[in-house]
């Protein structure tokens, strides 16, 4: 299993660069950590006893819109052979195989999640299906942990409302994307008086708020794509400035 990790790289840099080590040691005290926009939203996923099979049965079923629409979604991403894409909040790995096929042998898929058991599952799937261009990544709740300019596309599907620190997470994604790279945001329509009670209670804000947050992070809105299978979700395309 191939899990992407930068801790080793950081330790090597400190070992062989006295300047970096010295600057790190004398760096000023860090500022106060950012405030969560919805504390506890990821508590159940971070449970060390997480039942992965439970979430597979919940995520990978025809009753879920993005599962039914997965082929339409992948088509609309317009991925090219050789592209590198980050599947942010990959979960059970629903899009890993189709992304792997879309970018081809010269492309790459980084399957990111904050949940260790999801990352482990994606690694196993990649090994079983012999997906040689997939790297599972255990990312942080405020940092995707990808090198600058390392991806051509970022895919956030039914996950943005789980970002506890959206400004910080989006800033790290902005750095990871190449200039002009695309970012796809799929999430639930949250319309008081129209949306389901679950959506109103679970999703913290509506489409316009999420769009503004992404734009404020340095992305340009390109278009809203209509997915025929969508009734509760929307698909927004952005470009990194």
From TrEMBL:
Residues 87-185 form the Methyltransferase type domain. Keywords: Signal. Residues 1-21 form the signal peptide. CDD domains: AdoMet_MTases (cd02440). GO terms for molecular function: S-adenosylmethionine-dependent methyltransferase activity. InterPro entries: Methyltransf_11, SAM-dependent_MTases_sf. It holds the Pfam family Methyltransf_11. The keyword Magnesium does not apply. This is Methyltransferase type 11 domain-containing protein. It comes from Gimesia panareensis.
